[in-house]
Design goal:
Elements: H1 3-15, H2 20-23, H3 26-44, E1 57-59, E2 67-73, H4 75-78, H5 89-101, E3 105-109, H6 120-127, E4 134-138, H7 141-145, H8 150-166, E5 170-174, H9 189-210, E6 214-216, H10 225-228, H11 242-259, E7 268-271, E8 278-280, H12 281-290, E9 294-298, E10 314-322, H13 327-333
Parallel strand pairs: 2-3, 2-4, 4-5, 5-6
Antiparallel strand pairs: 1-3, 6-9, 7-10, 8-10, 9-10
Helix pairs in contact: 1-9, 1-12, 5-11, 8-9, 9-12, 11-13
């Protein structure tokens, strides 16, 4: 077995071992299946929940060639559940990244609601010709709900990251969110959803870092906050609300800027992590899965020195926090403020047709 495969397996088994077959018997399996169907009906009951307009276009202000940001993944990358294009995570990140960099940002949004990791290859076919500078991938929830084997889902993600890195694109992956925070999901299904989603998030972290990307643990996005604040969810209580997507964008944004070597604003600081934040990948992956907002990337040896175990065996573990008045975080959280461009956000007035009842979310 190769070292990469061994570490991916270690991350999964050390974080949350086993699958459904090893955890529950036949009777409990039937209960969980029934609860899953019930939860799905509750979500689909809100037929008004649909995709927002696509945010593809040039956002922000600045001189010179725009940075190109690709938004890839499932409904969490689309922004399903919000009304305006200016409330979607892609536009929020693009607009704020422009403020960080002092350059315009061209957003290429190819994410599709209902996507599983196996759908990433099709989305890459639309992204790679655009030669993006950085790609944000948000994927995993549908793999969990469909019970796609972790190894299968992770391999699709790994191949996507490799393809992007081969064309010089930086990659930031928001790992599988914590499905244990979803209100339509009853217990004990919610407990298993949390276990499965954290298991996938840990495995995603190992694969992405070894493929040359970095991950941000979305977990429950802002930890207990999503569990106690219903306004962070949209009407279906499954997808985030405008404020919820703003919270997710605030978590992802510093890592996107760091991937492009764009200096962080003064109101962002790194939280202290013992031992310089360097961990074996499997350990870092397990820790990140339990701590939302944690970034994991390949450890970089100090100038003139080296890191014992190698950069791919060890990972840099980092958590960033907004300090002071948190102006950037507040600007994200207070949206939807008017953010005209492109073309006065004409997409806000172009609503797509509602999805048919029963379509994947």
């Amino acid at each position: 077995m190769s070292g990469a495969r061994r570490m991916r397996r270690t991350a999964v088994t050390s974080a949350y071992a086993g699958g459904l077959a090893g955890l529950v018997g036949g009777a409990l399996f039937g209960i969980l299946r029934g609860e899953a169907m019930m939860a799905r009906r509750r979500v689909l009951r809100h037929e008004g929940i649909e995709d927002p307009p696509n945010g593809t276009g040039v956002w922000g202000q600045g001189q010179g060639r725009p940075l190109t940001l690709a938004m890839i993944g499932d409904s969490s990358a689309v922004g399903r559940g919000v009304d305006l294009v200016t409330e979607t995570p892609g536009v929020l990140v693009a607009h704020s990244l422009s403020g960080f960099a002092g350059r315009r940002v061209r957003l290429v949004q190819v994410a599709v609601s209902g996507s599983e990791s196996s759908d990433l290859a099709l989305q890459l076919g639309r992204v790679l010709p655009e030669r993006p500078d950085v790609a944000v991938i948000m994927i995993g929830a549908n793999d969990v709900t469909a019970r796609i084997p972790t190894g299968v889902a992770v391999e699709h993600l790994r191949q996507a990251v490799l393809a992007l890195r081969q064309v010089g694109c930086e990659v930031v992956v928001g790992t599988c969110p914590d499905l244990g925070t979803l209100r339509p999901v009853p217990q004990p299904l919610r407990l298993f959803g949390r276990r499965w989603s954290r298991q996938l998030a840990a495995a995603q972290t190992v694969a992405v870092v070894q493929a040359g990307g970095r991950t941000v643990s979305l977990g429950s996005l802002l930890g207990p906050e999503f569990e106690i604040r219903p306004e962070l969810f949209s009407l279906d209580q499954f997808h985030p609300s405008a404020e919820g997507y703003a919270a997710a964008a605030a978590v992802m944004l510093p890592s996107v800027a760091a991937a492009l070597d764009i200096p962080a604003p003064q109101d962002i600081r790194d939280l202290s992590i013992p031992s310089g934040g360097v961990r074996p990948i499997a350990t870092a992956a397990a820790r990140a899965a339990e701590h939302p907002g944690t970034e994991v990337s390949a450890a970089v040896p100090p100038r003139g020195g080296s890191i014992r175990g190698g950069a791919l065996a060890l990972s840099s573990l980092r958590r960033r926090a907004w300090t002071g008045d948190g102006s950037w975080a507040l600007s994200l959280r207070r949206r939807p403020a008017r953010m005209p461009t492109p073309e006065e956000a004409r997409g806000d007035r172009e609503r797509p047709a509602a999805r048919a009842k029963g379509q994947a979310v």
